[in-house]
Amino acid sequence: MALTEERTGKTYLILTYGCQMNENDSERLAGQLRDLGYAAAARPEDADVILLNTCCVRESAEKKVHGKIGELKRLKAANPNLIIGVAGCMAQKDKDKLFKRAPHIDLVLGTHNIHQLGESIAEIGRARGRVLAVWEQAERLAPGVPTVRKAGIAAWLPIMYGCNNFCTYCIVPYVRGRERSRPVDEVVAEAAELAAQGFREVTLLGQNVNSYGKDVPGHADFADLLAAVDKVAGIARIRYMTSHPRDMNDKVIAAVKAGRHVCEHFHLPIQAGNDAVLAAMNRGYTTADYRRLVAAIRAAVPACSLTTDIIVGFPGETEAMFADTLALMAEVRFDAAYTFLYSQRSGTPAAVMADQIPPAVKKERLKRLMDVQNDVSLALNRELVGAEVEVLVEGESKNDANKMMGRTRTNKIVIWDKTGREAPGDLATVAVTAAQTWVLKGRLI
Ligand code: SAH
Ligand code: SF4
Ligand code: F3S
Hints:
The protein is of the alpha/beta class. It has helices at about 20-35, 60-80, 90-95, 95-100, 115-125, 170-175, 185-195, 220-230, 250-260, 275-280, 285-300, 320-330, 360-380; strands spanning about 10-15, 40, 50-55, 85-90, 105-110, 130-135, 155-160, 160, 180, 200-205, 235-240, 265, 305-310, 335-340, 390-395, 400-410, 415, 425-435, 440-445. It folds into three domains: about 10-135, Methylthiotransferase, N-terminal domain (Rossmann fold, 3-Layer(aba) Sandwich); about 155-380, tm_1862 like domain (pyruvate-formate lyase- activating enzyme, Alpha-Beta Horseshoe), CATH 3.80.30; about 390-445, CATH 2.40.50.140. The strands form five sheets. A six-stranded parallel β-sheet has the order 2-1-3-4-5-6, sandwiched between helices. A five-stranded mixed beta barrel has the order 15-16-17-19-18. A three-stranded parallel β-sheet has the order 7-10-11, with helices on both faces. It is globular. S-adenosyl-L-homocysteine (SAH) binds near residues 58, 169, 170, 242 and 343.
């Protein structure tokens, strides 16, 4: 974008916690700083601006952030001109309470105010005071904010902001506001721009992508959007997250099946395998609905992978209810599951429900769940040994520069010995020779 910015000699560091949406927000924070003439700092000690882009979905995420804020006190003492900012979901939730808790913070920037970073920093410079920029709701869709993306082959592409679902355990609707969809043209234009920059894969982001467009009467829906992005030249793969099982439908399944570049991977968080728990969570579907959905997906796209999110220890979850979740996992056979201990979020309905589950019980259930899932993941991966899979080459393996890493369309990680013939961004064929729980090993063909 603006490549004319003057270098000020100043540098920044952004630390990101939380989900892909936050990672994309950080890219937009970085874009604004670049346009102000800041470069990325090599070390925290060198930075003129340090931003923490925060998450509050679980207590563990908040603890990490508070720990980091505490650590930064030392840097502020050494360099009083250092600007420390807290952005994102915790900023939105706690607002000026963050200043009270940590007086060395200069800026609190809410989730609806990401685009105001530049003016906020200018204001801190002028007034030498603190700035609180937290709107209660988005005044409009965030305008086109400059973006600095991590170099690579895959990019995040937000298609909508906010969430209207109010699952009873979840803080996200309170800190991200109501659903706002970006126009199809804007999403398609950004995808084309990404392709021109050399990105090969886009992940369409939203808390519930299946309700894309529903906030605007007569708007295109998510299936229409998938079809439109599928036509963007240069984009080899399209992913999306997250799908809500209640709103996933035959039209979207058909769009995935029909899309040449849309990957055969369905991430469908079920959260629990018991109907009473699902009802208490306000998820809006039953286990029977979910089973029907999985059957429809597997009938339409037989070679797909299926992943999920599960929360253990939701208030009132009995041993028998938890056993239903274990049984459903064994029955559905997910390729992978992201599993969480229920975390009480104040202000959410579940936080004040009776029968909160003791931590030790939650931990024990999580362990049993992971044991079941790991066995299934390994078994499914073993079924791929001997097969040839298409991978999008990402680069060298993190742990070994003699090995390369890529992902299948079903989002499985594949590692193989480097041959020198493969370059990041290539689509290559790999013969799978061995399987582990989380990765496949193979040989380039
Ligand atoms: N919008 C997405 C993701 C939201 S957060 C969705 O609906 O799937 C990602 C995951 O965090 C959720 O799927 C849920 O499994 C988990 N999560 C959310 N709130 C939580 C809480 N209070 N305690 C534990 N896990 C939680
Ligand atoms: Fe949270 Fe539910 Fe919205 Fe996902 S759909 S962000 S779990 S409220
Ligand atoms: Fe966390 Fe906010 Fe994402 S609470 S999970 S960073 S939407």
